[in-house]
Amino acid sequence: MRFLPAALIALLALAGAPANADTASPPGDDAAAAVEGGADIAGCIDAAKRRDADTAISLCSRALDTGHLGEAPTIAALINRGLAHVAKNEPASAIPDFDRALEMRPDTVAFYDMRAMAHAMQGEAAPAIHDYAEVIRRGAAEDAGTAEHLLRQGIALHLEGDDNAAARLFTQARRSAPEGSDDELRALLWQNLMLQAGRQNALAPLSAAAAGRDLTQWPGPLIQYYRDQITEMALEQSLDDPDPAVSAARACETTFYVAAQALVDGRFGVAKDGFGHAQTLCPPTSIEFVAARPEAIVAAQTIAPDVSNDMLQCQAADANGDITTIIDLCGRALGHPDAPDVWRVGALTRRATGYYRNGDLDRAIADLDEALALRPDSIDIYRQRSSYRLDKGENSGGLADLSYALTLQPDFVPAYVDRAWARLAARDTAGALGDFGKAIAIQPDQPRLHLGRGVVAFLAGDDAQAAADFTSVIEATSQAPYAVLWLALTEKRHPGDSGRIVESGAAALDPYQWPGPLVRFVRGEISIEDLAGQAADPDPETARKQDCEASFYVGALARIAGDEASARLRFEHAREVCSPENIEYHAALAALSAR
């Protein structure tokens, strides 16, 4: 097994300069010649400078065999011989030399670095990582502050397997670092990673630290990425700065911390490549460069083929959408207790989806309970479980999941929208309006949020608020067919000053391109038979969506006309065929519960 070629090159460079203070070499060739074996020491050093590994090994060995060298010449001979063995790809022969050098000088950081390299080349991950932990722990500059010392101690503890203790040190480091500094950012992200690895709530501290900050300015985008609010591509677009040194520093941090998150997420190949790339981007004195070397070893350790194969089969079954296969294959994947947490979470959430589609809500919810025990701050899993609980009629449990998700990330707009629809279905229109108001306060320029609040207001009978929201959407966008639809319904129920806005909004639409026919129907320009003829797309998914929308709006008009029996039939059909992704689904649920 081979690891970290960039670091190997860096260490081999030491062989060409053995008088470096970290190698504890004798002061010079003349001093070396003054003791027995000194000529051999001098020759060993000269051969190392010339990168003549065989000669260096021979002369260093002859000098050591005299048994009369002092401490400094002995260490020089050991280190240069060890590096020569490394250069010849003979790590097993190099390790004993580094061992002896460290027995004599246990505080010399460079010797741990050299031995770590040799262990890594030998494929001995555990001792290599242990030595790298010592390099990180001992390698702070003389002027390093408290925060950096705490960071280094925490990273070393993490590499030694104590993530809980590491998380505590990172918390201390974050508190001691100046706000907005690189040390604070490092501590914040390391704390997040350790809490994730320890199956603890990692998102709440990150959200609390981000509160009140301008997350559009660096390092805000990196924090947003860790909060799963922007993609990796969007993160990369934030790296540029007029100062090339600033851009380079951002690229280093981004590469390392994206790789670190990938490692926690079980994307080992991505992590290994990222840590390798970090070693080409980051300054050798940076924490990211030093930490990338042992983390690359961690990421390179293999997972048993049967574990990875079963997990891949589970993912493939989910992609194919075969319910029985999803349940069977994800169940087989879950039979591996040694699978990484994040893989088990993926199998549990996929199998839960299979159970849900199969109508087995109890088993679906039980799988999500288990997934949350592994990832207790996953907003996506809380949203998924909330949906299943609500479908099961457990309104309080479904709402509780969404409310807790919002404590983890108070500015997460999709959870406000989910909770608004859930509250609407429970006839809590005031709460639903409040949630849409909070979402709009976070994203005021998002038309769909204004549309949603308008729908809730319409269903609550507040036609003035509904008309105001629908109008704002129509005026803000060149084409807003659904806002036109809802405003036309509002105008039908409560004629007022919106007719001209409906007219202008409808004029911008293609009357024959869906939902143009719906707009024409609501405005009384075509019959229900004409509408049915235009809601028959050959694509089954499109046809289902058209059926959903036509059913709801026909029902809404029937209710306005006073035909309650026809309205309820249409709303019940919409509830059956609409997807929860459609506003009409939630509106149909609310309409059915209203009377």
Automatic annotation (TrEMBL):
TPR-type repeats, residues: 75-108, 345-378
Signal sequence extent: 1-21
Pfam families: TPR_16 (PF13432), TPR_2 (PF07719)
Superkingdom to which the source organism belongs: Bacteria
Presence of keyword Metal-binding: no
Keyword Signal among record annotations: yes
Gene3D superfamilies: Tetratricopeptide repeat domain
Keywords of the record: Repeat, Signal, TPR repeat
Protein name, entry field: Tetratricopeptide repeat protein
Taxonomic source organism: Dongia sedimenti
